[in-house]
Structures are given as C-alpha cells and as structure tokens.
Amino acid sequence: MSEKLKIKLSIANRVYPLTIEANQEEGLRKAAKNIEAMIKQFEQSYSVRDKQDVLAMCALQFASQVEQKTIDKANVNEHVEEKLKALNDLLHSHLVS
Hints:
By secondary structure, the protein is of the alpha+beta class. It is 70% helix and 16% strand. A two-stranded antiparallel sheet has the order 1-2. One of its GO terms (biological process) is cell division. This is Cell division protein ZapA.
C-alpha cells in the first residue's frame, strides 16, 4: 500500500491542501512552482491584475503545450511509421530477389 501525504500548495495567494500519493509530491510541487512563475510573467508582461484572468491564461498556456506535444508526437509517430515501412519494403525486396 502506498503512503499518503498531506501537503499544502500555494497558488495565486491561495493555499490548497491535498492528500496525495508520496510519488506525486515532486511533480505537484514543480507544477505549482511553474504556475506561480507563469502568473508572475503574465502579470508583468500584460499588466493583468485579476487573478481569475491570469489563471485562465495559465490554463490556456499549459493546455496548448499539452495539445502541441500530442500533435508533435503524432507527427513523429507517422514519420517513424513511414521510415519503418520503407525499411521493411527494402528488406523484403532484398530477400525476394
């Protein structure tokens, strides 16, 4: 049975108590730190003071990064498939001849 931890994360001047698996702590703390850094960046770059707007901008930024990685991965997979098919065809032609 995995160990449960009770932690508190601060995001946008609010504290969020969480009960998590021990192996999730590092990722959650890094995520909270990244969100805080992005909040600071948006507030400085765009003079946004409403935390709701800043958090929505952060959510959009993170979601778009996830979607772009999914698209990029699909493109890489397609490219690898094409290369494997070409290699398979080449091997097949040498084996048949």
